[in-house]
Each structure stands twice: as structure tokens, then as C-alpha cells.
Amino acid sequence: MDKRIYAIRGAIDAQNTKDSILLAVKKLTTELYTKNNIIESDIISIQFTMTKDLTELNPAAALRQAGYGKSTALFCSVEPEITNSLTSIIRVLVTTYLDKKPIHCYLGSTRELRPDFLPNQ
């Protein structure tokens, strides 16, 4: 199968500390890259969103500190405030070339956001 462009989604929860955000971004990125056999040169861009209560570190900066995305276009924005939505959440959208359908990754408390993406038990 030839490679085509896909968008891969993921999310993870974090505490509002630099270490927690860095660890969360590294864990989520490692999971996405591993499950999807991502090669950095195939990535078009990575977009992060974060809830407004996470203020200690930009996830895009955390990604670079973790050793990923050195030559990738990165973007980060704050999510809109929605009543009763989860707090302390980092979401990511990776646009990349893949040779198979993507596997989305929702880790920690974010698993409840997309139960349809969870592996069958």
C-alpha cells in the first residue's frame, strides 16, 4: 500500500508542572509513534491543544525537549472553555504520511473521551 496523508489523534492528562507536562507529552508521543510506525520525516505537522489550567510548559516545547519534532512544524493553542469538560488535558493531532490506517491513542483519564478508539477488551 502506498503512503497517504492521515491525521492521528491522541490525548493525555497532566498535572500543572513542567515535569508532568514533559512526561505526558513524551509518553503520548512515544505511544503514537510506536503504534503507528511513524518516521519523523513523514510528519507534516503536529498541533497541540491544552486546557487553560495547564500553564507551566507549552506541549510543543515539551515535545522538542523530549527529543521529538526537531524539524517538524508545531503549533499549540488553548482549548475553549466548555461546561463540564475534563481539565488538565493535552490533546494532539499529528498529520503524517502512513501506509496504514492510524491508531489513535487516548491515555490516562482521557480514555473516557473516545471509548470508540480503545482496543477491544
Structural write-up:
The protein has 121 residues and is α/β, with parallel strands linked by helices. It contains two helices and five strands. The chain has helices at residues 18-36, 59-65; strands at 4-13, 43-50, 73-78, 89-98, 105-106. Helix 1 packs across helix 2 (59-65). The mean pLDDT is 92.
Which sequence of SSEs, written as H and E, runs from N to C?
A: EHEHEEE
User: What proportion of the residues form beta strands (DSSP E)?
Assistant: 25-35%
Helix vs. strand class: alpha/beta
Instruction: Name the overall outline.
Output: globular
Radius of gyration: 14 Å
Residue share in helices?
10-25%
Count the DSSP helices: 2
Low-pLDDT stretches: none
The termini sit apart by 29 Å
User: In which order are the strands of the major sheet placed?
Assistant: 3-2-4-1-5
Mean pLDDT: 92
DSSP, total strands: 5
Describe this protein with a few key phrases.
121 residues; 5 strands; 2 helices; 5-stranded mixed β-sheet; alpha/beta; single chain
In summary, what is this structure?
The chain is α/β, with parallel strands linked by helices and 121 residues long. Helices cover 21% and strands 30% of the residues.
How is the topology of this model organized?
Elements: E1 4-13, H1 18-36, E2 43-50, H2 59-65, E3 73-78, E4 89-98, E5 105-106
